[in-house]
Amino acid sequence: MEKLLIVDDETSICTSLSFALEDEYQIFVAEDESTALQLLTKQDIAIILLDLRLGSSDGIQLLKQIKTHKPDIVVIMMTAYGTIESSVEAMKAGAFYYIAKPINIDELHLLLLKAKEYMSLNSRIKYLTDQISLNQGRYNIIGTSKKITHVFDLIERIKDIDSNVLITGESGTGKELVARAIHTCGNRQNKPFHIINCSAIPGHLLESELFGFKKGSFTGAFEDQKGIIELSNGGTLFLDEIGDMDLNLQTKLLRVIQDKKIRPIGASKEIQVDVRFISATNKDLREEIKLNTFRMDLFYRLNVIHIHMPPLRERKEDIPKLTDFFIKKYNIAFSKEIKGITHKALDIIEKYKFDGNVRELQNIIERAVALTNHSFIHEEDLPEELFITENVFNPHDDLLPIPVGESMKHIEKKVITATLKKYEGNRKRTAEILGISERALRYKIKEYQLT
Length: 451
Fold this sequence. Notes:
Blueprint: E1 3-7, H1 11-21, E2 26-30, H2 33-42, E3 47-51, E4 53-54, E5 57-58, H3 59-69, E6 74-79, H4 84-92, E7 97-100, H5 105-134, H6 146-158, E8 165-168, H7 175-185, E9 193-197, H8 203-211, E10 212-213, E11 225-226, H9 228-231, E12 236-240, H10 247-259, E13 261-262, E14 271-272, E15 276-281, H11 285-290, H12 296-302, E16 305-308, H13 319-334, E17 340-341, H14 343-351, H15 357-371, E18 376-377, H16 408-422, H17 427-434, H18 438-447
Parallel strand pairs: 1-2, 1-3, 3-6, 6-7, 8-15, 8-16, 9-12, 12-15, 17-18
Antiparallel strand pairs: 4-5, 10-11, 13-14
Helix pairs in contact: 6-7, 13-15, 17-18
C-alpha cells in the first residue's frame, strides 16, 4: 500500500481527503510546511497532495524543496485559486499534475491511478537504465560456457509458461538470478515478484509471512496483514532454500499449489490466488525425502521443470568475463578507475577451487578493487587463501588410474565410487553424468556395497 501525504492548512480538507482515500493508501497529514518536511524524512512517501497556499507559505517553494531532495516523489498540486500562470509554474517546478478545489473525488481517484502508472513506468525505466549501465550479460547472468548457455536456453523456453520451476545448485551459483530472469523476461514481468528465504525465518513466523493473518488472530496481530503469496498474486514467488521448510508448512504449501487458494491465519474465508512458484535449494531433495524431511508429493509439484546451476569450477572459461564485470561494478561503487587484471593474477584466480562459487569470486574482486593502488589488479592484491596449495584446482583430480588388464567390474566400481564422491553423494547428478538411470545406479551401489 503506497504512502500518501496530504499537505493543506485546512483541517476539514485533510479530514475529508483522508476519509476518501484511506482504503487505498496509507495516509499521512501535514497542515504546515515544517510538519510536511519532517514526515518526508521519516516516511517513504510515494505521492503528495500539496495545497498551493499554506497560510503564509508558498506551496510552489515547498514543491521545489521536495523535488530537490526527493525527485521521484509524485506531487499533485491543489488550489482554489487556479490560474494558467500558477499551473505552468507548478509543472515547471516538477508537479505531476494540477487539480482545482473543490476537489471532485472521482477525478482525484483517476488522477491518482495515472500517477501510480507513471511511478511504475518510471521505476521500470530506472531499473533497465541501471542494468544497461552495468553492461550485464544475458538475463543479467555473465557467461558463455556450454553449461551456462544451456541454462539460458531453458530460461528462454519456459519464461512464458506457468509451470513451477525448481532450481538446484550450490550456494553462490546464482539461483536467484535465474528466478528473476524467468520472471522479468516472461509474460508475468509487469506483475509482482517476491522472494522469501525459507531458512532465514523460523517456521511459526514463516507461516504468517506466507499466508498473512487477520487482526487479533494471535498475540501481536494488531492489524490485518497480507501474506507474501497474496502479494504475489498474478506474478511470481521465489521460495529460496525450500529444503529447509518444515513438514507442517510443506503440507499447507502443497494445498496452495493444488487448489490455488490460501487462508490467512484467523480468516474464515479462502482467497483465490494465481502465483507461479519458483523454488531453489542446495540440498538433494530426493535424499531429504528418504530421510522423511521433505514431502515427495510437494517435490513433484515444485519440480515440474528442473534447472541446475553449475558450480564455477565447472565453467572456468566464464571467470575472465565475470572478473571484468565485477571490476567495472566496483569501479563505480568505489569511484575508481581500475583498467583490468594482470595475466598472472587472473591465472591464480582461474586455478582456485571456488567452493563459494560466483559469490566468492565477487567478494575477491570487490576486496581487490578496494585495496589496490595499481591501475591493474596484481597478484599481491588477492587474498592469501588463493595461494594455499590445497585450494588450487587440479584438472587431473578427475583422472583415475586404470591398470592394463583390470577387470571391467573393478573399473566400473572405481568410476561409480569416484563420481559419487565428486558430487557429494548426489545420486541423481551421478546418474546423469554416468548416463544411466537412478534405478541402475542404485542397483550398482547395492551390488558393489558402496556407501
